[in-house]
Amino acid sequence: MTEHSTAAAVREMTPSDEPKTGIEVPTGAATVAVADVHVRYRTPSTERAAAAAGSPLLRAANRALGRSPHVLVRALSGISFVARAGESIGIIGRNGSGKSTLLRVIAGLETPARGSVLAESTPVLLGVNAALLPHLSGERNVVLGLLAMGKTPAEAEQLTPEIVELAGIGRAIYLPMRTYSSGMASRLRFAIAAAAEPNILLIDEALATGDAAFKERSELKMAELRARAGTVFLVSHAAQTVEEMCTRAIWLDKGRVILDGPAYETAQQYRWWSWNVAKGETDKAEGLLQSALAQRKETVVELTEPDPPGTVPRHARRTP
Ligand SMILES: Nc1ncnc2c1ncn2[C@@H]1O[C@H](COP(=O)(O)OP(=O)(O)OP(=O)(O)O)[C@@H](O)[C@H]1O
């Protein structure tokens, strides 16, 4: 990040307080600034209530055109935080809480309806759907992946053995990727993305399928990246993975931040809440959620310059 790019002025305020003093993020420390991001999807719905909603004119138009009625899904509602160099941030939360959407917004694959994201360099998203070519061998995909990430052919050749070793899938590396198990494919994707040594690495559940040896190698790789003052985001359902691999955790629920803090404490609270949800202890779970919300210090992120030189704005549309 250039010295201009810490344009995020962060003001912290507790839910009961008015904004306190403005605190400038130390120059060079912020790698990603997420400022009041909202993402909504309009999607067709077969629910009866959706068919009954809307004006009579709209309903008639839908019927005439054979269109399904649409509903609005709020995937993210006002997410703000600043990620810093050397952090490894776990994003946790139940199904549909907005974790993948948040990564996609940071990666620039999704444009928020409101809000902005600024990154000091292009984040590399390592998702379970990362595009590799199924008919080519793992080895060929490694080379293509590296070229796609901007490496020269000579660099790709030099890096390939290291990636093959990190993936640790043995002779399967010479077989077409369509023959891989999902775990093998995930390991290869992680190895390729990590070898590109991005400053900002976004990982979506990719490590969940690895065995113990792979987990250890990937932990080392992530630590290496953090030590180089990079930032890692890791989306995971498994609170334990986040406790073990991350320095900080953000707990999302229904598109909102419930808690943002040290990985162990945050993941523990999420775990206890999840356990209660799973046991059908709805009232207890709601109480835990509310108490977590009350502990949270709400972060307001302001981007003081529209597009500071040296930064990578992730979206064309900015907060009006
Ligand atoms: N393309 C889309 N169109 C409509 N709704 C979507 C789309 N993508 C996500 N959503 C909705 O947005 C919400 C957040 O989804 P998201 O995939 O970010 O959740 P998640 O926390 O990653 O879930 P999971 O843990 O199940 O992977 C969900 O309600 C989901 O149904």
TrEMBL record:
Keywords (alphabetical) are: ATP-binding, Nucleotide-binding, Transport
Q: Which GO terms describe its cellular component?
A: membrane
Q: SUPFAM superfamilies this protein is in?
A: P-loop containing nucleoside triphosphate hydrolases
Name this polypeptide is given: Teichoic acid transport system ATP-binding protein
Segments for region (Disordered)? 1-24, 299-320
Cross-referenced InterPro entries: AAA+_ATPase, ABC_transporter-like_ATP-bd, ABC_transporter-like_CS, ABC_transpr_TagH-like, Bact_Polysacc_Export_ATP-bd, P-loop_NTPase
Pfam families referenced in this protein's UniProt entry, alphabetically: ABC_tran
> Lineage in the entry?
Bacteria, Bacillati, Actinomycetota, Actinomycetes, Micrococcales
- Species of provenance: Georgenia muralis
Which family, according to the similarity comment? Answer: Belongs to the ABC transporter superfamily.
Query: Residue ranges of the ABC transporter domain?
Result: 58-279
Gene3D superfamilies for the chain: P-loop containing nucleotide triphosphate hydrolases (3.40.50.300)
